[in-house]
């Protein structure tokens, strides 16, 4: 048998072809990380992501325990199941980290984001922007004769959908807080 035929025959039955079909599936995960509220902790967490080439889709940080001086970092990231497990394990090894929770896999959770949209508009476009804002339950928090600033709270998907509808009407600028998330129930 020639080397070419042998090579072709092996590729049909090679163990290297038995790749897990889900290995390359990138999923979005929301991680809640409780850390000491001290200088440099956020830089260490972000350094873990950037040093290993992981991307952060959303990041929010705030002190949640004033007496215990602890903060909650909510991170939305994407990766294969293996990469997400690596991220959680590596976060858990950072000394000022107390807890790491993957809200995506631990059960139902509530995710919300706040966004501000500056939309220019006159005439029919102005009326349409106000109509859409009403449908999405967005509040007009500022208004001039040439523009509005709308405030909208909801899921990231709701924020994205509102932005897409406002683009053709004159979307000028968007400011987003990033995702805040909590597990449901007790």
Polypeptide structure, described:
It is a single chain. This protein has two domains: 27-102, ACT domain (Alpha-Beta Plaits, 2-Layer Sandwich), CATH 3.30.70.260; 109-183, ACT-like. Chain A, domain 2 (Alpha-Beta Plaits, 2-Layer Sandwich), CATH 3.30.70. The protein is 33% helix and 38% strand. It has helices at 3-13, 41-51, 81-93, 124-135, 156-170; strands at 27-36, 56-65, 70-79, 97-102, 109-120, 139-143, 147-154, 171-176, 180-183. Strand 6 (139-143) and strand 7 (147-154) form a beta hairpin. Helix 4 runs antiparallel to helix 5 (156-170).
Compact summary:
With 186 residues, the chain is of the alpha+beta class. 33% of the residues lie in helices and 38% in strands.
Give short descriptive properties of this protein.
186 residues, Alpha-Beta Plaits, 2 domains, 5-stranded antiparallel sheet, 38% strand, elongated, disordered N terminus, Acetolactate synthase small subunit, acetolactate synthase regulator activity, transferase, AHAS_small-like_ACT
How big is the Rg?
23 Å
From the structure provided, what is the oligomeric state, counting identical versus distinct chains? Answer: single chain
Q: Any idea what the shape is?
A: elongated
CATH topology of the largest domain: Alpha-Beta Plaits
Number of strands: 9
Number of helices: 5
């Amino acid at each position: 048998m020639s080397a070419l035929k042998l090579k072709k025959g092996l590729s049909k039955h090679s163990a290297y072809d038995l790749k897990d079909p889900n290995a390359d599936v990138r999923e979005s995960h929301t991680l809640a990380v409780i850390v000491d509220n001290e200088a440099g902790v956020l830089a260490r967490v972000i350094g873990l992501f950037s040093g290993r080439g992981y991307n952060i889709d959303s990041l929010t940080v705030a002190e949640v325990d004033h007496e215990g001086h602890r903060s909650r970092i909510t991170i939305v990231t994407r990766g294969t199941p293996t990469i997400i497990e690596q991220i959680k394990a590596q976060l858990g090894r950072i000394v000022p980290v107390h807890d790491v929770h993957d809200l995506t896999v631990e059960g139902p959770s509530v995710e919300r984001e706040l966004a501000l949209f500056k939309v220019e508009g006159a005439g029919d476009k102005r009326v349409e922007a106000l109509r859409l804002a009403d449908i999405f339950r967005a509040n007009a928090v500022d208004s001039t004769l040439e523009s509005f600033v709308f405030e909208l709270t909801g899921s990231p998907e709701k924020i994205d959908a509102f932005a897409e509808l406002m683009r053709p009407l004159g979307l000028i600028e968007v400011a987003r807080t990033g995702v805040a998330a909590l597990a449901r129930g007790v």
